[in-house]
Amino acid sequence: MALHKISDFDADYRDSFQGNDIKGMSVYAQGTDEKIGSVNDVLVDDEGHLRYFIVDLGFWIFGKKVLLPVGRSRIDYGTDRVYAIGMTREQAESLPEFSDRLALDYDYEENVRGVYRNSTTSGTASLEASAPLESSAALDADAAAYQQPATTSASLASTPIYNRDTYSYREEPSLYEMNEQDHQTLKLYEERLIANKQRRKTGEVTVGKHVETETARVAVPVEKERVVIERVTPENAGQTVDASQATFREGEVARMEIYEETADVRKEAFVREEVKVTKVVDQETVEAKETIRREELDVNAPGLPIDER
């Protein structure tokens, strides 16, 4: 059965992981809490069943990727971790290397399965004792048996033989079936109000100036000179005067200059007042009301023992 990367098989694969992206989750050893690597991708079969996690060991072995059967894992959505059951970091190092360039055929998977089967049947035996993957190795089709490292005759007798032509992942539930009921996680969500402020322009005040004209009047007192000619009769009018005193001269003229004042009006500019334009910030509290939701846990187990922590 062919294997596919999960995003190629289903673009909405996150729905299968409670809305989480399984890619990038850290992989830890079950029990020891020792970090092994991170999930690089997930392989599914033609029916969409999870079969392997592609674990990237790059943080301590440059660029190496290995396959972790889903049955040997436990997903903890609360901590975004995948726990590898029965594996240490050193054992992960000895797993056959995965590469997109290698064919994911029965022979390759048998090398992977052989490592995990050996770790299960040998009890305390290390995965390091398994045979490394040979890219050019091929199994004998007539023998129809997977490659397996040397072990005791008792172990070999108790190990089942699988047929390459009829093999199904259902034959090994310990490797490919996830026992969901042992590690289900419910996330309870709650809404909360997030208050932010936005600054927006409400208007614009323009302060300028213009020129107004008016007619101003000013009173200026001016003086003008005029000549007053007054004729009077002298007291000795009619008396005879001596001929030597009487001088008759033609063309005798009396001159007098006459002046007058004129108004000299001019304009001058001066500062009448000064205008200062500033702005101040007034503060006020605006209240907003919105309905928010919160999920509560409902446990329906009448008469059954429940240990709530």
From TrEMBL:
One Gene Ontology cellular component annotation held by this UniProt entry: plasma membrane light-harvesting complex
A Pfam family of this chain: PRC
GO biological process terms on file: photosynthesis, light reaction
Ranges of residues in domain PRC-barrel: 15-84
Domain DUF2382: 186-299
SUPFAM superfamilies: PRC-barrel domain (SSF50346)
Protein name: DUF2382 domain-containing protein
